[in-house]
Amino acid sequence: MRVIEVGPEDPRAADYRNLTDVGWRQQLEPAEGLFLAEGEKVIRRALTAGFEPRSALMTRRWLPGLTDVLESWDVDVMVADEATLKAVVGFRLHRGALAAFGRRAAAPVAQVLDGASRIVVLENLVDHTNVGLVFRTAAALGMDAIVVSPACADPYYRRAVKTSMGAVLELPWTTAEAWPSTLTGMVEDGWQVAALTPAPEAVDIRRWRPGVGTRVALALGSEGPGLTSAALASVSVRLRIPVTARVDSLNVAAAAAIACYELGKPTSDGGGHDRS
After folding, report:
1. CATH of the structural domain 109-263, one choice from 1.20.1560.10, 1.10.8.60, 3.90.440.10, 3.40.1280.10
2. Which of 18, 87, 167, 208 sits 20 to 30 Å CA-CA off 214?
3. Segment 29-87, tens digit of pLDDT
4. How far from the centroid of its chain's Cα atoms is residue 56's Cα?
């Protein structure tokens, strides 16, 4: 670990520039094979999960809290005052610390599903915050893995990683490039792929029983439109969460939380439902 002072134009801070330019960052980060972890807890979780750091950038007051986990790495730990950090990233960094890590190559879908019995499938979510919340919920409520469609918002994007509190870095997940045929293949392989939809003809999620030993995949679609017609045509069953007439549907992250609680495995402390 090399602690170095940097100014607003220092090229060594290039990984952290213009974080407010979402479109540019969404192209840059996958191309460069990196993602950003924000805040001490998430940085620690990234390191615990085995991701290799490229560098870190923080105000000096955050350095003591991260020295123990960064000191053994051959990386630049850049320190700067708050004004410099704001000039680099484009906004006031409330958590005061960022670290850049190398991404991992996407695993084959079959590898992620191997040994799993409860998973979440996300199709075309556009909001990184919702993606992060779904990951955090799935991890908390005993889901084994997540599969995302190619057009889904990047789970490695900073906001998704931050909102998930690092669950994106710990819960197995991958992108299903063959879409929506991946869903069809799962059904053929014995999975009960359950689509969440507000459609009145869908089965009340409280009444559905998947059967003992059945592997269940909860499929959620994008904010607003929901699952595409092609995805809905590929699933085993359509489920709905009953709501009052005051709203027409739930936010996708809220729906995921309810569905994972209803259909997920018991958590380690005995909580959660086992509806199998």
Report:
1. 3.40.1280.10
2. 167
3. 999 999 999 999 999 999 999 999 999 999 999 999 999 999 999 999 999 999 999 99
4. 21
